[in-house]
Design a protein that fits this description.
The complex is a heterodimer of chains A (about 290) and B (about 300).
Chain A lengths: L2 H37 L19 H8 L3 H33 L2 H16 L2 H11 L5 H8 L12 H11 L1 H13 L3 H9 L4 H29 L3 H6 L7 H12 L2 H25 L4 H4 L2
Helix pairs in contact in A: 1-13, 2-13, 3-7, 3-8, 3-10, 5-7, 8-10, 9-10, 10-13, 12-13
Chain B lengths: L1 H10 L8 H5 L3 H34 L19 H7 L2 H33 L3 H16 L2 H13 L7 H24 L5 H8 L4 H30 L2 H6 L6 H11 L4 H33 L1
Helix pairs in contact in B: 3-13, 4-13, 5-8, 5-10, 6-8, 7-8, 8-10, 9-10
The chains are: A mainly alpha (about 290), B mainly alpha (about 300).
Organism (chain A): Stappia taiwanensis
Main location (chain A): membrane
Family (chain A): Belongs to the binding-protein-dependent transport system permease family. CysTW subfamily.
Amino acid sequence: MTEIFDRFGKPLGGIFLGLALLWLAGMVLVPGVFMINASLRPHLPPPLRGGELDVYVLDNFAYLINHVNHGRIFFKTVWSSALVTLVTLLLCYPIAFWLAKVARRWQVAVMLVLLLIPYLMNEVLRGLAWYIILAFSGPLNAILIGLGLMDEPVRWYGDGGVVAGMAYAYLLFMLFPIYNAISTLDRAQIDAARDLGASAWRIHRRVVLPHAKVGIATGCVFVFMMAAGSYVAPALLGAPGSRWFTQIVYEWFFEIGNWNRGAAYGVALMAMCLAVVLGLLALFRVNLASAVK
Amino acid sequence: MTQTTTATATLDADLPPIIPARRLSHSGMGLLLGRLQPLAGRVYLLVFVLFLMSPLLILAAAAFNDSSFPTILPWQGSTIKWIVALFHDGEIGRALISSGIIAAGVIGLSLPVGTAAALVLTSLHGRTRGVVYALMVSPMLIPGIVIGISTLLFWRQVGVNGGYFLTILAQSSFIISFVMLMIVAQLQRFDRTMEEAALGLGASRLLVFRRILLPYLRPALLAACCIAFLQSFENCNTTLFVRGTETPLTIFIATKVRTGLTPVINALGLVMMVGTIMGAVLWEIARYRRAVRSAAV
């Protein structure tokens, strides 16, 4: 702790320490505690706040568990986010391998530009693009019917549309960590495995995949977290029957006005995400410091 | 692959091939697979690029369709009226300004705090460092809406409602994590003896920081500035909860989708895309040149 003062002197070191504390305490921890606090209290009209009715209860969480739909939507959000994660992983792994070990330098440069273009634009515009593609009389239906693959247009808006839009929106967050991880793999290891007679499948399973583990874990953590916490994609590409958990949280806050219950739903979402993040890291046997850097 | 085989063949001309496993791929099924694999790879690459690009092309194309709703089917004639309309649209202009104010605030807050946090983190060791590190990256691992909610609930207690101030604070709380990580990465390659030399020559600690460390961190700070801007500009989830009555660009577009979308939004997307492409190409050319140069050295 004293090192910061030794290095920068008392005044400057104090400023750095103060700023870091201000951030961690004032902007992260204390607001988090306030959220949890609010989630454990009943929603009361202002005059009754702080009165004898304002006690700690688990009502808001019980409401989530007992509600006909909300619990179901919560788990649907978890499964769909897991599906989005899996789809992006399957889509990205071959490309990441190609970029890191096969492509020539100019091919990498072109591909990186192609990848960056959609991602420097914002998520809403990416969602909007899929909104146009998936429209009932939109290009996807037209192409599929034109190819004779379907007889009638399909309503894509809904769970399927949300998953497709999200897989597109978060692709890069899966691709880059895996690409970075595979880049550090020595080509000689692949060549050695091949020379010893390993099949392509075996080389990936025994050499490349174990090496890419950290990147895969990082990608999965971020994609899952973003998918579960996304409001835009479900709002754009969903249908009335395919609501996402984030939309319900939003409703509690700004349509129904019960902030305490909204806070409880937010806490549930946060707890779920943290559990999945820690679970994934444990599953891949990767520590936080190597996953997030 | 063929090169190694011929090399082996010429070296050990009268010996049987020493790599029997390789021979398998020259027969029947192996040969077929060997031919198919690169083809399949190429097809996959093509499909992937199509998947990546077609939404953008469709988004851009719809900006030129003379239809009151953004679509490319049916094509009702080409027009540039939506692009003209974009530059006369006051609402979009205001939304852009709003996004700009927020982004400027976020940059102004996250760069100093992120740098300070990085310096504090790198001065810690052992278990403390692990704990502080986990704490510092936690805002990146928490869904954006949760950050928005907690900021909103915290500041309500002191009577501050949603608006620019809360939006800047809420966005910064996780953007600082990104800045911190980028500065830490740059700090890891820093040569501390330079600081010691300057101190030995009589410079004050403030001067050492200003003249040695800060210039060294400049590239990382610049990159962090870009990331902070992009993150702030495209943020929707956190902003949604703390925006109060402000309407930054992402929120504006999202609400338009519900209340009546016109191809003006596509025109906006097109303009942003063109800007992005130019930026990305310039950045990539610079990177490519650097890579070639460092490879040549």
